[in-house]
Design goal:
It is a single chain. With 318 residues, the protein is α/β, with parallel strands linked by helices. It has two domains: 7-147, NAD(P)-binding Rossmann-like Domain (Rossmann fold, 3-Layer(aba) Sandwich); 151-314, Lactate dehydrogenase/glycoside hydrolase, family 4, C-terminal (L-2-Hydroxyisocaproate Dehydrogenase, Chain A, domain 2, Alpha-Beta Complex). The chain has helices at 15-26, 40-54, 84-90, 97-113, 127-138, 151-165, 198-202, 212-230, 235-249, 294-314; strands at residues 7-11, 32-36, 62-65, 76-79, 119-122, 145-147, 172-173, 192-193, 196-197, 254-263, 269-280, 283-287. Strands 3-2-1-4-5-6 form a six-stranded parallel β-sheet. Strands 7-8-9 form a three-stranded antiparallel β-sheet. A three-stranded antiparallel β-sheet has the order 10-11-12.
Amino acid sequence: MENTKRKVGIIGLGHVGAHCAYSIAIQGIADELVLVDQNAQKCVSERQDLLDSVTYMPHRVAVTIGDFEDLKDCSILVNATGNIDILRANQDRLDEMEFTIHAVNGYIPRIMDAGFDGIILNITNPCDIVTWQIAKLSQLPRGRVLGTGTGLDTSRLISALSRQTGFDHKSITAYMMGEHGASQMVPWSKVSFGGKSLDAWAQEDPRFQFDREAMKKEAIGAGWVTFRGKFCTEYGISSTAARMVDTILRDEKRIMPASAMLCGEYGQEDLFAGVPVVLGANGAEQVVEFQLPETEQEEFHACCQNIRTYMEHAATIR
């Protein structure tokens, strides 16, 4: 991370990757973007569109096209490779695993052999499993491989809480945790509004006496609401990824949910799951470990067991 130029590589320029590139460019988060995709014309077209927009930005952003070896001096790589046709056919993130695990098995070794020594942020689904695979293949130090994980899911939960209570989302602290998928959970004991717990608010205000299980399901299912009408999700995840990239490059030490390696935290070892982390120059620098009540701890463990099942399958993919 000695490179002072803010250079970010984007791997995969589908809906998600292209919007990540645009979000990072339009906010001036990076000085240079390197675009990599197996479809050469897609790279050319996306680069042209980005360059067309640079004229009206208050800053300059260089945009180049490269191959995996050209990512070696990037500070951060955003892994956004995927196959929308698989997801469109079955609407199950896990069905993407055969494609996405095979893909990273092919190009992560090439990137590392070229001398890459930065941070890898994974978006590709199933997020926790692909992030774990990238960490294995790259052998980068703990924290320098992470995933967006439950970051977007957390945004969806906070949005629902804001609508229900009328409080602005910036006054709400809440997290989705566990798998970025159907089994994720909400630690309701840690939800607060301006520092006052949800349980305390609920004792005096009917707006806070809502069906928590229904809200959790709404947050989990929100992505499919987006997907059914446009067959992709792009704005929410690109904003999530851009904010994480910016936080890392600025060394903000900001607490955000991410898919991070657990090494004893929450009673789990050797897996990636969505948890609050301290994001800084070295990636996920610290896992924030809550003291959860027994019921929530058990629910989190069940999420992790699902992740382990998927890890076993991923290990068989070549």
